[in-house]
Amino acid sequence: MKKVYLLNICIMIAALSHAQQVSYQEARQAAQSFFAKQQKAVTQCAHIETSSNHDTLFYIFNANNAYVLISADKRCQPVLAFSDKTTFQTNNIIPPVQMWMGNYAAQIQSLKQQNVLRPHREWLAVLQPQKDFDNDIEAVAPLLTSQWGQGVNYNYYCPKDEDGTNGRCVTGCVATAMAQLIYYFRFPDTGMASYSYTHDTYGTLSANFGQTKYDYDAMTDKPDQINLPMSLLIHHCGVAVDMVYGPNASGMYNHKAAYALRTYFKYSPQTAYVFRDTTLMDWDSLIVTHLNKNIPLYYAGWSVPDTNGHGFVCDGYQKTDSTYYYHFNFGWDGYMDGYFYTAALSPGGNNFNLAQEIIVNAYPDTSLYHYPDIQLTGSRTLTALSGSFEDGSSPIQNYANNMDYTWNIQPDHDSIIHIKFDIYFQIAQNDTLFIHSDDANLSNYIITQDSGKLSLNVFSPYIQVRLKTDTGETKNGFTASYSSDIPSYCNILQMLSAKSGIVEDGSGANRYNNFTDCKTLLKIDGMKFISLHFTKFETEKDKDILYIYDQGVNPSVLLATLSGAIHDTVFSFQTNTLMFVFQTDEQNTFDGWKFTYTSAINAIEDRDKQDIDVKIYPNPANQQLTIENTDIIIQKVKVYDIWGKLQQQYEINTGKHTYDINRLSQGMYFIKIETSQGIITRKLQINR
Fold first, then answer.
1. What is the C-alpha separation between 536 and 271, in angstroms, rounded?
2. Do the Cβ atoms of 108 and 72 come closer than 8 Å?
3. How far apart, in whole angstroms, are the C-alpha atoms of residue 158 and residue 164?
4. H-helix or E-strand containing 99?
5. Which of 93-97, 226-230, 494-498, 660-664 has the lowest mean pLDDT?
6. For residue 9, what are the β-bridge partners?
C-alpha cells in the first residue's frame, strides 16, 4: 500500500512538473504581450533551445528590430533577455550572448530536476487574458554612445600575427570594455607610469602611459575605418592587464582591470572588483546606484563550469515591478547589445552558482586630478577624419552657466564626400544649441529646452556646433560624434592587359589616402619586355611604398621598391607580367604616382646589338663584372640604380676589363655605356 501511495505521489509530481512547461503558443503570447509595449508585433520564432533529452528550455522571438527570449518553464522568470535595437541572428551568436544563453539553459535544466511546483508570479500575470506585463518601468537608458569592437578598426597596435584577420591579434574583450569606459569619461588626458610584460609568443609588450596623450577628439563612437587614437588606447588597456593575445581571441586571466584603471589611468582609489558569489552587498542596489549616477560598470561573467569568461560594459537598466534587466555593451561593434536578466531564474528554486563580477567606483580620481573642465571659452577646430566632442561638463555633471563655445568640424582631407554626424543632447530652457553646415539641402538647427538624438548626413566638409547658456538652470548637455566618408582611390586588385597605357595611384590631383593596400596586375600576352616611364612619383619615403614584382616567374621576384621622390624616370623589365603593390602607413600623404608603360617583343636597348659588339657578363652577377669590347671606343661606363642614382663609374678603352661590384647591394641596375658610335644601355641583375 505504501509503495502504491509513493508511486502516486511521484506520478503527481511529474504531472505537475510537466504542467509547468510553456507551450509554443503560450511563449508566443508572452512575446507578443512584451512587444506590445513597444508597439511592435512578433514576426518569427528565431530559435528554440532544447536539452539533450529534447526538453524545450527557452524560445527566442523576433519583431521589427527587436527580439525577446522567453523561458519555457513557468517556474522561471518569463522574459530572460531582450533588445529593442536588433533582431536575433542564430547563425552568428557572439560568445558573451552564448554565455548568457548557456547560463539560462543550465538553470532551467537544473530546475526541471527539482520539486519546485509553484509558477513564477509574472507568468500568472502574463497569461491572464488582456493583462500585460507591468508598464510601470524604472530605467536608465544606455549611457555609452560608443559601439567599439576588437578587430580591424581597433587593433592596429596589437601584435602582428599572420593568422589574424588583418594580420594582427584581436584586442580582447577586456581591453575594449576598459577603453570604452575611459572614452565615456574622456579621462585621463595622459596616463601615469609605464609597464612591460613578456608574452610567450609575441615577446616584450610595452606601454608608456605617462608619455601618451590620449586624443579623444579624434576618437569616434563607431569607426568605419582604422582609428589610431582608439587603437592606441585599447592596446594600452591590453598591455596594462597582461593581455594574452591571440589571432582569433585575446583574454585576461589575472583580474587586473581595476588595478590598471587605478594605477595607469588615474581612476579612483576605490576602483575595485566585487564578486557576486562572495559579496554580502545587494547586487542590484550596487549596480543601480552607479547607473543612476551615470557611472557605467565593467561587468564579466562565466559559463559555469567553463573557465572562459567574457568582459563587457553594463551601462543601463530597466526595472519592471521588482525585476531588473541590465543593458550590456558587449564590445562587438554594437552587435547583439541588449538587456539581460542576471539573477537566479527561480527565486529559492535552486542554488545555481552565478559566476559574475563587476568593477565598482570606476570613475576619475577627482581628489588628485582636475576633472572635468566645464568652463570652455572660445572655439575649437577638429581636423581628424573621425572624431567626437562634448560640452566639457563630463557625463556626471551638468554643463556650465554663461558658456558661449563653438566646435568647428573641418576634416583635413582633399575630398570629403559627406560627414555622418550624431549628437545626443539635453538642453535646458533659455540655453541654446546651434548646429550649422554648408550643406544647402539641410536646415540649420536651433535646439532649446529639448532632449534626444539627432543624426545627420552632411554633404559638406564643414559642420559648426555652438552652445550658448545663460545664468539659469542647466542640464546634462551633449555629446557628439562624427565620421567622414572619403573616396577610395584605388581598387583592391586592378587587372590590365593593353600593350600600352597609363597607371596611377588613383588620387588624381588629390593626395592618396592612409592605410592604402591595392594592387595592379599588368599582364601583356605575346610581349617580352615592359618599359615604365614615371611622370610623377612623390610618397612618404620608406613609409608609403610601391613594390614592383615580376609575376612571370614562380615564385614572383621583387624587382623594385620605390618611395620618396622620383622624377621623370624610366625602368625596363624583361617580363610580360608585372604586379604593382601600393601600401601606405597611418600618417602623412603626398601627391602619389603616375607612369605610362609600353611593351615590346624585343628590348629597346637591344636594337643596336648587331652593330655594336659589347659583352657584359656574368649577368646576373655576384662579386665581379666583366665588360668586353673589340674595335669600338668606349669613353665611359656608368652604373645606375633603379631610382636613377649613379652608383659606379668606369673609364675603359678597348679590350676586356673586370670590375669589383662588392659594394653594390642586391637588385636591378642599368649600365649606360658611352661609345664613339652612341650610347648603349643594358640591364644588370646582382644576386647575393
1. 57
2. yes
3. 11
4. helix 95-112
5. 660-664
6. none
Domains in the chain: ranges and CATH:
20-127 (no CATH), 281-360 (3.90.70.50), 377-485 (2.60.120.290), 493-600 (2.60.120.290), 614-686 (2.60.40.1930)
Q: Where are the beta strands (DSSP E) in 20-172?
A: 44-50, 56-63, 66-71, 79-83, 137-140
| Cβ-proximal residues to 91 (8 Å cutoff; 6+ apart), any chain | none
In this prediction the pTM is 0.83
3-state secondary structure of 14: helix
**CB–CB of 31/87 below 8 Å?**
no
DSSP 363-378: SB-TTTS-------EE
* Contact between 336 and 83 (Cβ < 8 Å): yes
CB 313 within 8 A of CB 297: yes
**Residues whose CB is less than 8 angstroms from the CB of residue 234 and which lie 6 or more positions away in sequence, other chains included:** 148, 154, 155, 157, 171, 175, 176, 179
Instruction: Judge whether 151 and 94 are in contact, CB under 8 Å.
Output: no
Higher pLDDT, 671 or 327: 327
With beta carbons less than 8 A apart as the criterion, state whether 325 and 288 touch: no
Report whether 114 contacts 107 (CB < 8 A).
no
- Reported as a single tens digit per residue, the pLDDT across 391-407 is 999 999 999 999 999 99
With beta carbons less than 8 A apart as the criterion, state whether 88 and 67 touch: yes
Residues 298, 95: Cα–Cα separation, whole Å: 17
3-state secondary structure of 420: strand
Cell numbers describing residue 660:
669589383
d(CA 52, CA 669): 71
Quick count: other Cβ atoms within 10 Å of Cβ 675? 17
The DSSP call for residue 605 is: G
Give the contacts of 435 (CB within 8 A, at least 6 positions apart).
423, 444, 445, 447, 454, 456, 463, 464, 465
Secondary-structure percent of the chain, ordered helix, strand, coil, rounded to 5: 15, 35, 45
Q: How far apart are CA 208 and CA 238, in angstroms?
A: 13
Burial 170-183 (b: 16+ CB within 10 A, else e): bbbbbbbbbbbbbb
Q: Which residues contact 499 (CB under 8 A, 6 or more apart)?
A: 524, 527, 598, 599
Classified as helix, coil or strand, 155 is coil
CB neighbours of residue 95 within 10 Å: 14
Residue burial 113-124, b: 16+ Cβ < 10 Å; e: rest: eeebeebbebbe
pLDDT in tens, 589-647: 999 999 999 998 865 444 444 456 778 889 888 889 888 876 677 778 888 876 667 88
Rounded Cα gap, residues 473 and 420, in angstroms: 31
pLDDT value at position 644? Answer: 67
Q: Taking a C-beta distance cutoff of 8 angstroms, is the pair 561, 643 a contact?
A: no
- Nearest CA-CA partner of 590 in 670, 486, 650, 516: 516
Cell of 506: 588613383
3-class DSSP state of 5:
helix
Encode 505-521: b = buried (16+ Cβ within 10 Å), e = exposed.
bbbeebbbbbebebbbb
Mention every residue, 6+ apart, whose C-beta is less than 8 A from residue 250.
150, 158, 169, 170, 171, 172, 175, 238, 243, 244
CB 395 within 8 A of CB 426: no
